[in-house]
Amino acid sequence: MKLKIALLPGDGIGPEIVGEAVKVLDSVAAKYGHQFEYSKALVGACAIDATGDPYPAETHAVCEASDVVLFGAIGDPKYDNNPAAKVRPEQGLLRMRKSLGLFANLRPLAVFDSLAGRSPLKTEIVKGADFICVRELTGGMYFGRPQGRSEDGNTAYDTCVYTREEIERILHLAFGLARGRRKKLTLVDKANVIATSRLWRQIGGELAPQYPDVELEYMFVDNAAMQIIQRPTHFDVIVTENLFGDILTDEASVISGSLGMLPSASVGAKVALFEPIHGSYPQAAGKNIANPMATILSAAMLLEHVGLQQEGKAVRDAVNQAIEAGVVTEDLAAAGAKACSTTEVGDFVAGHIA
Ligand code: IPM
Ligand code: MN
Questions:
Q1: Given 260, 288, 306, which residue is the final one in a domain?
Q2: Is 215's C-beta closer than 6 angstroms to any atom of ligand 1?
Q3: Over its length of 354 residues, how does the chain's per-residue pLDDT go in tens digits?
Q4: How many domains does the chain have?
Q5: Cβ atoms of 17 and 276 closer than 8 Å
Q6: Quick one: 71 and 160 in the same domain?
Q7: Which mutation among 90, 244, 274, 275 tests ligand 1's pocket best, with the greatest number of atoms within 8 A of CB?
Q8: Strands in 227-320 per DSSP E
Q9: Is residue 90 lining ligand 1, measured as CB closer than 6 Å?
Q10: Which residue among 49, 130, 244, 330 has the highest number of C-beta atoms inside a 10 angstrom radius?
Q11: Which residues line the annotated binding site?
Q12: Is 152 considered catalytic here?
């Protein structure tokens, strides 16, 4: 297969972890006879430094001209405590999502048996947890307008907006995913308080008869935050709006033992984007210590997305092997064991595939 892959390493550890994922993709290409063609582009703080724009038109053009995008992370501490900064790296990510039509963010949450003991939660609670969060990605409070400040600067406001069309398309996607899994869909909202949530719940009920084989349950987001920690095995597919999904998936990531293990896919229009759910981890940048597995597993999702199931599985198996063999970075290393570097983990996974 010929595949055009846009590479957006971004900031912090982004270039290192994307580099390891490319190593793994190259190994897949060699082994299975594919041709992967890469085009690099800037996004985030590095794009601001180079061009003044966190998502330059050139980067958008590279993404549009590709079949898929592999993205690292964005963010730089110099912006975090500077509320006055007019241009922020995060704006690049949001504009990229919106302009590529990536309305659904899929965040799978599975516990690797051999890592269950690394979770801060009790092993008997997390063992066997396997669910996927479908986060709406281009609506809600992130994009609703008006957003801003009053003239005197003492009042701030955001707007949460959802249209029927936006809710229907993400719910159809979530029902469809549930149908291919254990057939259980949890719609997370705050319908007891928020108007947009009431529309989500209403439309959920309207669509449910089209998916009679899927069991639909509703859950308030505050309760869901608790249930995810107390009974993670309860869930199969969770679907929710943008902001709730952002928060719940960071929370859910602790179940697996390391944020460094979790991949994600953003889909919608033509081009799909794959990225680890963690951030740019600036303290680790350039030190060759960051865990590349989430990005490598994002590459596995990328392969499966374009129909290369066997290749995706080969990547997953190789990651499992690395974990079993103790070839892991410091976030996962057993107490007293020597941690491997970012490149050592990538070399092992790529080597195992070859
Ligand atoms: C994520 C991140 C982003 C978000 C930030 C960096 C804008 O936290 O992908 O979850 O809030 O969506
Ligand atoms: Mn987030």
A1: 260
A2: no
A3: 999 999 999 999 999 999 999 999 999 999 999 999 999 999 999 999 999 999 999 999 999 999 999 999 999 999 888 877 889 999 999 999 999 999 999 999 988 877 888 888 999 999 999 999 999 999 999 999 999 999 999 999 999 999 999 999 999 999 999 999 999 999 999 999 999 999 999 999 999 999 999 999 999 999 999 999 999 999 999 999 999 999 999 899 889 878 889 999 999 988 999 999 999 999 999 999 999 999 999 999 999 999 999 999 999 999 999 999 999 999 888 888 899 999 999 999 999 999
A4: 2
A5: yes
A6: no
A7: 90
A8: 237-240, 263-267, 272-276
A9: yes
A10: 244
A11: 97, 107, 135, 222, 246, 250
A12: no
